[in-house]
């Protein structure tokens, strides 16, 4: 089944957030615009709005996370929701209960919205197909498949720095093969009509279908970074590699790590992004990660506003846009 079949309600409303594939430029722009209004809330002393008052949000993370889990929790609390963080290691799934039985039991407690990270591709999609009509699922990363809210917060950050995205070039560098972030980001960037997307990686870390997605592929980082406006670095996902696809970390850094010298190949006002967690000295030099062109911590901050926007939209409590 295509995610889009179940992501939207029959009236076209976003009911779940499972993938950026097929989401469309208009919908993504709606999410980014709504997130701008929530970024204003997050800058105030009292960082709360009542849009999810009375709703219960469940954080269900079957994989480790710092940024996604914390920003979803903060986003839900800033929308005034009640938040339940399930400790998966201490839950009944560790005694053999199935994922769908766990969800059914949480639904029996009148939980309204599940935020789920899972190592299996398609897990959030599976849950979305089984929940009650008034329950919503947000994919916080499933296997190699998708990480839609990361892609949305990334394009939000890009748009804030480079509003004319159709004139801009984006280079995604590193382990694209195992990156759900890269996949979701490419779909979102294409939907927004970005000028150019480049993928830079050793051949063993490139997925097979990239050129079909309109991405220009480079194995040489110096050539690939020439005159780009936005550089997105990716972590080497060794935990997802079944075989040795790479030389040592130091050889990888020598070949594809982002140093100040390499960054100088990009435009002088290029921004550097990374979804985190960063591995300094493996894919990125500390002088770049902490340097003036880095917007890595802005991405984290923007994650709260984006996740507030996505939760309010799927729950149907977002303020109506003018003209809708
Ligand atoms: N970017 C990201 O998903 O980070 P976490 O694994 O810390 O959530």
Description:
With 324 residues, the chain is α/β, with parallel strands linked by helices. The protein folds into two domains: 4-147 and 301-314, Aspartate/ornithine carbamoyltransferase (Rossmann fold); 148-297, Rossmann fold (3-Layer(aba) Sandwich), CATH 3.40.50. It has twelve helices and nine strands. It has helices at residues 3-7, 25-42, 67-78, 99-107, 123-130, 148-161, 180-191, 221-225, 249-256, 260-263, 286-289, 296-315, and strands spanning 56-61, 82-86, 113-118, 136-142, 169-173, 196-200, 216-218, 230-233, 271-273. Strands 7-6-5-8-9 form a five-stranded parallel beta sheet. The chain has a four-stranded parallel beta sheet with strand order 2-1-3-4, with helices on both faces. Strand 1, helix 3 and strand 2 (82-86) form a beta-alpha-beta unit. Helix 2 packs across helix 6 (148-161), helix 2 (25-42) packs across helix 12 (296-315) and helix 6 packs across helix 12 (296-315). The longest helix is centred in the C-terminal third of the chain and has 20 residues, at 296-315. The chain starts with a helix and ends in a 9-residue tail after the last helix. It binds phosphoric acid mono(formamide)ester (CP). Residues 65-69, 141, 150, 275-277 line the site of phosphoric acid mono(formamide)ester. Phosphoric acid mono(formamide)ester is lined by residues 65-69, 141, 150, 275-277.
């Amino acid at each position: 089944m295509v995610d889009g079949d179940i992501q939207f309600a029959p009236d076209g409303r976003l009911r779940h957030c499972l993938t950026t594939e097929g989401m469309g430029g208009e919908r993504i722009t709606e999410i980014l615009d709504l997130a701008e209004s929530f970024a204003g809330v997050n800058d105030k002393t009292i960082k709360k709005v009542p849009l999810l008052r009375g709703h219960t949000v469940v954080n269900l993370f079957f994989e480790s996370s710092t940024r996604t889990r914390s920003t979803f929790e903060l986003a839900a609390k800033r929308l005034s929701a009640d938040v339940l963080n399930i400790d998966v290691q201490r839950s009944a799934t560790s005694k053999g209960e199935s994922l769908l039985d766990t969800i059914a039991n949480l639904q029996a407690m009148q939980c309204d919205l599940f935020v789920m990270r899972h190592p299996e591709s398609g897990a959030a999609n599976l849950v979305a197909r089984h929940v009650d009509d008034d329950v919503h699922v947000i994919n916080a990363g499933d296997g190699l498949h998708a990480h839609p809210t990361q892609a949305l917060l990334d394009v939000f950050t890009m748009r804030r720095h480079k509003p004319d995205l159709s004139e801009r070039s984006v280079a995604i560098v590193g382990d694209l093969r195992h990156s759900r972030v890269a996949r979701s980001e490419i779909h979102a960037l294409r939907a927004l009509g970005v000028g150019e997307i480049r993928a830079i990686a050793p051949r063993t870390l490139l997925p097979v279908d990239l050129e079909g997605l309109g991405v220009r592929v480079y194995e040489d980082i110096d050539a690939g970074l020439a005159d780009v406006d936005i550089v997105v670095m990716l972590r080497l996902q060794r935990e997802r590699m079944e075989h040795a696809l790479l030389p040592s970390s130091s050889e990888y850094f020598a070949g594809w790590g982002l140093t100040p010298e390499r960054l100088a190949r990009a435009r002088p006002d290029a921004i550097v992004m990374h979804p985190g967690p960063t591995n300094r000295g493996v894919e990125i030099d500390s002088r770049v990660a902490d340097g003036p062109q880095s917007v890595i911590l802005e991405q984290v901050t923007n994650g709260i506003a984006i996740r507030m926007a996505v939760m309010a939209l799927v729950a149907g409590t977002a303020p109506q846009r003018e003209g809708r």
